[in-house]
Design goal:
By secondary structure, the protein is of the alpha/beta class. It has helices spanning 43-53, 68-79, 122-127, 129-134, 146-155, 174-177, 187-194, 202-210, 250-263, 268-282, 295-302; strands at residues 7-10, 14-21, 37-41, 58-65, 87-90, 96-103, 108-113, 137-140, 159-162, 182-183, 216-220, 226-230, 233-237. It binds adenosine-5'-diphosphate.
Length: 304
């Protein structure tokens, strides 16, 4: 029996260990924070859950640790109805963990230990070939080895969305970018992708995006929303004005919502209009996956 998926996510799953702090520590500094909170997270898993909460059938391809963190992640994904048949538990390897300090204003600082995510391989992607050949949209990020990301972009036959996060140490190959339909960087990631030094405002962002060999680039701009750059035109999409509580996973929910809208047949600007709303709603609750909204919650959270 084969299952039809709207969206395939090839990516990471982390256990987020979160502490509220007055300010994130400087080098050599120790700060005292609030009680430890544990949330399922990781960019891949967050984007999978974001799309599933918006009503899509999602399959997640990747690796979990052979420990409590892996078990927590698997049951969290399954609770959101995500197909985990291609999420491999890796013997004798710890699950990915993110250590997150969140300031009262919502800004954060993060250290990631990849664990099992570092073991995701091109052969894992091959094993999930039928899923990637049937999904309408495939969502990729950079928290797993690059050869697995490249294999997934190559194998996917639907629309390929790449969120190049965290920012890569080296520019991505044209071979990868040519297999990507929509790149979704934030301003920092766009600068890294294009080797740009200095600030990235909307004008610079449009110029940098045009250098990438992808038909569509959607740059997220935090509280300023997003910029859609396609075929030489750029369109600014404003975000709703909100008072953020915790911006963790806002970029991930933006990507999940963009995929959701594209599966539904939206054009790219219409998809970005939905994604900025879902991203803004995600900043209004704490944590990564617990903050990801259903469509009804997006409307309720953004109601003045
Ligand atoms: P990342 O977290 O990946 O750096 P951004 O900070 O650009 O991504 O945020 C992604 C999306 O989340 C934005 O496009 C916007 O929709 C929403 N968002 C983030 N911060 C805010 C904010 N302060 N106010 C309203 N929306 C926000």
């Amino acid at each position: 029996m084969s299952t039809i998926h709207d969206i395939a996510v090839v990516g990471s799953a982390n256990l987020d260990l979160v502490v509220d702090v007055a300010h994130v520590p400087l080098v050599g500094e120790t700060v005292m924070g609030g009680d430890l909170q544990r949330y399922p997270g990781g960019k891949g898993a967050n984007q999978a859950v974001a799309a599933a909460r918006l009503g899509r059938h999602v399959a997640m391809i990747g690796r979990l640790g052979d420990d409590e963190g892996g078990a927590i992640l698997r049951s969290a994904l399954e609770a959101d109805g995500i197909d985990t048949a291609h999420l491999v538990t890796t013997a004798d390897v710890p699950n990915g963990v993110a250590l997150i300090a969140v300031e009262h204003g919502g800004d954060n600082a993060i250290v990631v230990s990849p664990g099992a995510n570092a073991r995701v391989s091109a052969s894992d992607v091959d094993a999930a070939g039928p899923v990637l050949a049937s999904a309408a949209v495939t969502l990729l990020q950079l928290e797993i080895p690059l050869d697995a990301v490249e294999a997934a972009a190559d194998a996917a036959t639907g629309t390929v969305i790449l969120n190049p996060a965290p920012a890569p140490a080296e520019p991505l190959s044209d071979a990868l970018l040519q297999n990507v339909d929509v790149v979704v960087p934030n301003q920092t990631e766009l600068a890294t992708l294009t080797g740009h030094r200095g600030p990235v405002d909307a004008v610079v962002a449009a110029e940098l995006a045009a250098q990438l060999p992808c038909p569509v680039v959607v740059i997220t701009l935090g509280g300023d929303g997003a910029l859609v750059v396609t075929e030489g035109t750029s369109t600014h999409v404003a975000a709703p004005s909100v008072g953020p509580v915790d911006t963790t996973a806002a970029g991930d929910s933006f990507c999940g919502a963009l995929a959701d809208a594209l599966v539904g047949g939206a054009g790219i600007v219409e998809a970005a209009e939905w994604a900025v709303r879902v991203g803004a709603a995600t900043t209004l609750r704490p944590g990564a996956q617990p903050s990801l909204p259903t469509p009804a919650e997006v409307e309720a959270l953004l109601r003045p």
